[in-house]
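Researcher: We're teaching a course module on how sequence relates to structure. For the next exercise, students receive a sequence and then see the predicted structure as tokens, so they can try to spot secondary structure elements on their own. Here is the exercise chain.
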Amino acid sequence: MSSNIEIKKTCLWCGREFIARKTSTEYCSHRCSGLAYKERKRQAKLEAYKKEYASQTSEVRAVEEVEFLTPTQCAKLLGVSRRSLYNYLSANSIPCLQLKGKTLIGRNHLDKLFDGRNEYKHKPPMQRSQITEFYTSKEVQEKYGISNSALYEIANREKWPKTQSRGKTLWSKEHIDRYFAQKKPSEDITEWYTAAEIQEKFGMTLSAIYNLVSKEGIPKKKEKGATFYSKVHFDKAKGIEVYDSPKYYTYAEAMEKYGLTRDQLHHYLKYHNITRVKKGKFTYISRKELDDLLAPPSI
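Model: And here is the predicted structure for the students to work with:
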């Protein structure tokens, strides 16, 4: 419900007189209100920039007055990152003093670096080796058992060099062999699951299998369009791995052998930092480390 009062006021933006219906009204129109709002935002942004600039200049002035600089202060003064500055220190390009837990750089040593005339050494561009060996798309598919769409997807992601010759796409042999050599599973893996076998054994859906493989980094391989997953690694991820008794104790075995309570055993493990491996609901203890710790004393 609109007010019946009429108040003569002056617009704070354009300066014209207008009749207001509320005492809190400051602008004569929606346009003036919007323009005033934008101006307030503009001024607030300008003030924030001024404060930031003032803090930066004050930091630089403070650094300029210090006789000995920390690596962080020196990096700010030179306008480089901390990593770059530590690279300069490692190469002995900038003199420094290393104390226990502290590195200091003398301001006078830093100034002396710029006193002399140091010629700029132009670095020649890196010479790229010419690619002379290529695969055709068909050869890549046959050798590594991937589809044409997978080939182009990997090539776009890894940016493999390619060229066209007589209507055929040729791919750099070196880049492709290096990529698949990195993806090749270890030769120690001899047992593999198919997705169907995993579904039957663990009752998992395909999406659950893919998520677990991605999360745990389970090795896999492709042969003739079929995907195989490492049996050992998948069993470990599902928590059904059985550890060899010569390497690990269970809590019950360690307590029985040394006549300890669970609290006493846990104290030894925690205080002496004995290696423990958690798999599923079971915790396994390094047999060698525990035996060495609790071995009878010798003179």
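Model: If you want an answer key for the exercise: The two ends are 99 Å apart (CA to CA). The chain has a mean pLDDT of 83.
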